[in-house]
Specification:
- InterPro entries: GlmS/AgaS_SIS, GlmS/FrlB_SIS, SIS_dom, SIS_dom_sf.
- Keywords: Aminotransferase, Repeat, Transferase.
- This protein is of the alpha/beta class.
- It is 50% helix and 15% strand.
- It has two domains: 165 residues, Glucose-6-phosphate isomerase like protein, domain 1 (Rossmann fold, 3-Layer(aba) Sandwich), CATH 3.40.50; 120 residues, Rossmann fold (3-Layer(aba) Sandwich).
- The protein contains 13 helices and nine strands.
- Helix 5 links the parallel strand 3 and strand 4.
């Protein structure tokens, strides 16, 4: 069976991240020094789709490790309602593979006009977004031709982790990042978590995680929709108990994203309660040997390979999700 673009690109992730971390070390050293000299009062994350999901990871990462509040931009505030936010003292981090979606570029312009320092995490370094930024952090992912993003998402997460490590002068996280490419290669060789037979007749499901697990749950749900056409919604496992848990009475399938960190025990208790209520649990555990802040990347590495393989087993083309294209031009 011919390898799909999605598979090839997901497989390339460890080498992409290894090259990225080396190439961007000096940039992150300088950016970290600037952020220590003038600590931001808040961080606005700008992105759509998969890049927006990377912003959820950033929220947990920077709020836990740096103590700085993080909030998601609403691009329509600028693009539709023509409103200018007051962002003096804030850092704006814009994530985009292409760097050319009109609404994202406009939001970045407005963030700078409002007084924010703009960092662009972008794959295309001569793009309109990169030209706007005060600091450009290239993804170094190379061409990404598959419609379903894989390596660019994981490279976005590693870029955010590298910013955090240098900003906070966290030597443990720096070393963990150095080890990450090899650990992702090991994850690629690990047994699959998802199989075609689990997904064949699935029409609806939820993806649950806590904290950093929830941070990737939204991306998992998106890929279940994009690649397999399964209606999937992501929740924090704590939030799920406040109403949506009634869905499990109908034997709902629940994808359990388990990160071994400070929230692990609470998450396990919540999932045990959900299972008792009748949910069918699909386990997606992180490898415990990986640093707790980087475990989400290992989960996503395994998931991307699993869902691509399942799609082909089910007769679907993971490179051609119906109705989707690589760059979405919303205004």
């Amino acid at each position: 069976m011919t390898e799909s673009r999605m598979h090839i690109e997901a497989q390339a992730t460890p080498e992409v991240i290894k090259a990225q971390l080396q190439a961007n070390a000096a940039i992150c050293e300088q950016l970290g020094a600037e952020l220590r000299q003038q600590p931001p009062t808040g961080i606005m994350m700008i992105g759509r789709g998969t890049s927006d999901h990377a912003g959820v990871f950033a929220k947990y990462l920077f709020e836990v490790e740096a103590g700085v509040p993080v909030f998601a931009a609403a691009p329509s505030v600028a693009g539709v309602y023509n409103s200018q936010l007051k962002l003096n003292g804030c850092l704006a981090i814009c994530i985009s593979q292409s760097g050319q979606s009109p609404d994202i570029v406009e939001q970045a312009k407005r963030a700078k006009a409002g007084g924010a320092k703009l960092v662009a995490i972008v794959n295309v370094t001569d793009s309109p977004l990169a030209q706007l930024a005060d600091t450009v952090l290239p993804l170094h992912a190379g061409p990404e031709l598959a419609v379903a993003a894989t390596k660019s998402y994981l490279a976005s997460l590693s870029a955010l982790a590298q910013i955090c490590a240098y900003w906070q002068q966290n030597d443990e996280l720096k070393q963990a990042l150095t080890n990450l490419p090899q650990q992702l290669q090991a994850t690629q060789k690990a047994p699959a978590c998802l199989h075609a037979e689990q997904l064949q007749n699935l029409r609806h499901c939820v993806v649950l995680g806590r904290g950093f697990g929830y941070a990737i749950a939204r991306e998992i749900a998106l890929k279940l929709k994009e690649v397999l056409g399964i209606h999937a919604e992501a929740f924090s496992s704590a939030e799920f108990l406040h109403g949506p848990v009634t869905l499990v009475e109908k034997h709902l399938s629940v994808f359990n994203v388990h990160i071994y960190d400070e929230g692990s025990d609470m998450h396990q208790r919540q999932l045990a309660d959900i299972q008792k209520r009748g949910a069918h649990i699909v386990q997606m555990p992180a490898p415990e040997a990986v640093h707790r802040r980087l475990q989400p990347l290992a989960v996503m590495q395994r998931f991307y390979l699993d869902i691509e393989h399942a799609a082909r087993q089910l007769g679907l083309n993971p490179d051609a999700p119906p109705g989707l294209k690589k760059v979405t031009e919303t205004h």
